[in-house]
Design goal:
This protein folds into two domains: 180 residues, Periplasmic binding protein-like II (D-Maltodextrin-Binding Protein, domain 2, 3-Layer(aba) Sandwich); 96 residues, Periplasmic binding protein-like II (D-Maltodextrin-Binding Protein, domain 2, 3-Layer(aba) Sandwich). Helices cover 40% and strands 19% of the residues. It contains eleven helices and 13 strands.
Length: 302
C-alpha cells in the first residue's frame, strides 16, 4: 500500500523536476547551447509598441532565443518613436527590425527594406486586426454614435492604431470633422488607458492590446478586416548569413510542441505562435492605402 506522504512527495519532486527542466530548456533557447560572449553582437530594432519596460519584458526572450540558435548575440535596440526605428534600420545600426506595416511600407519605399518573416496569430493565421474600443458603460453602440465624440488614435505611423482605423471610419461615413476632437497618442497602451479613464469616448488599438485590457472595462465596437501580420524586416545591406540564420531559427519554432509552447509563455503575444515566410507582396494593400491617402481618404482621413 502506497504512503500518501510518499505519493505527495513524488508529485512535488516531479513538479520541481519539470520546473527545472523548463527553466534550463528556455534559458538555453529550446535546449541549444549559448556562448553569447563569443558571438558578434547584432542589434535588433523594434518600433515602440508599448512602454520601454513592457518592451524589454516582451521581446528580450526572443533575443535570447535567437542568440541561442544562431551564430550571433542579439541585443534589443529600442527607439524613441516609429520614425527613429526606420532610421536605425536605414543607417545599419539595426540590420534587422520588427516594424509595423506602415513603417515597413515607408522603409521599403525609401531604401528597399524587405520582409523576412511574419508571425502567426493564435488561430494560426498571419494576420491581426485593429479594434475600435469604448468603455463598457459607454452609451456608444454603433459607429454612427461616434459622431460628436472624442477619439484617440495611435501614433501617426501606426498601422492598427492610425492608418487602418481612419480608413475604416472613413469608409463607414465618419471623417475627422465628424468627431468632437481627436488626438494621436504614443502607444496602444496609452490609447486603451485613456479610453478607460474617460479621457476619450473611443479609440483604436491593435487586437492583442484590446484583449489585454478587455477585462479592465473595455467593450469592442468594431473590428477591421484582417491586416497582414507585422513583419520582421532586413535591408539589402544586411548580411546574407544573418538573414539565413534568423529565418531558419524563427521558422523552426513549433508552437504545437508543448515544451516550446511552455517556454514561449513569456514572449510577446504576437510572437509566441510561430512564424511563416513573408514577402513584400503580402503588404500590397498597405502600400496601396499609403499611396492613396491624398486622393483616397484625403485630409478628412489623414
Amino acid at each position: 500500500m502506497h504512503s500518501p506522504l510518499r505519493h505527495a512527495c513524488g508529485i512535488k519532486w516531479r513538479k520541481i523536476f519539470v520546473s527545472i527542466f523548463l527553466s534550463v530548456f528556455w534559458g538555453t533557447g529550446f535546449g541549444a547551447t549559448v556562448n553569447a560572449a563569443e558571438k558578434p553582437i547584432v542589434y535588433f530594432g523594434i518600433i515602440p509598441r508599448y512602454n520601454p519596460m513592457v518592451m524589454y519584458r516582451n521581446y528580450q526572450p526572443l533575443m535570447d532565443y535567437l542568440t541561442a540558435n544562431t551564430p550571433y548575440h542579439f541585443e534589443l535596440k529600442l527607439s524613441r518613436d516609429y520614425p527613429e526605428a526606420v532610421t536605425l534600420l536605414r543607417t545599419g545600426v539595426t540590420p534587422i527590425a520588427s516594424l509595423g506595416d506602415v513603417t515597413f511600407s515607408e522603409a521599403c519605399k525609401n531604401f528597399g527594406a524587405m520582409a523576412l518573416v511574419r508571425p502567426l496569430s493564435d488561430g494560426g493565421e498571419p494576420f491581426y486586426r485593429s479594434i475600435i474600443i469604448v468603455r463598457q458603460d459607454s452609451s456608444i453602440q454603433t459607429l454612427a454614435d461616434l459622431k460628436g465624440k472624442s477619439f484617440a488614435f495611435g501614433d501617426p505611423h501606426s498601422t492598427s492604431g492610425n492608418l487602418i482605423p481612419r480608413d475604416y471610419l472613413y469608409r463607414h461615413g465618419i471623417t475627422l470633422f465628424d468627431l468632437k476632437n481627436f488626438s494621436t497618442l504614443g502607444s496602444h497602451d496609452a490609447v486603451a488607458k485613456d479610453v478607460l479613464k474617460g479621457k476619450f469616448a473611443a479609440g483604436a488599438v491593435k487586437d492583442v492590446i484590446a484583449y489585454r485590457y478587455q477585462s479592465h472595462g473595455l467593450r469592442f465596437l468594431a473590428f477591421s478586416e484582417p491586416i497582414p501580420a507585422v513583419p520582421i524586416v532586413v535591408t539589402k545591406d544586411t548580411s546574407p548569413a544573418l538573414v539565413a540564420a534568423v529565418k531558419k531559427a524563427l521558422l523552426a519554432i513549433d508552437p504545437g510542441d508543448p515544451l516550446q509552447r511552455a517556454a514561449m509563455k513569456s514572449w510577446d503575444p504576437e510572437f509566441r505562435n510561430g512564424f511563416v515566410p513573408a514577402t513584400t507582396a503580402d503588404y500590397q494593400h498597405i502600400f496601396d492605402l499609403m499611396a492613396g491617402i491624398k486622393d483616397g481618404c484625403g485630409s478628412r482621413c489623414h
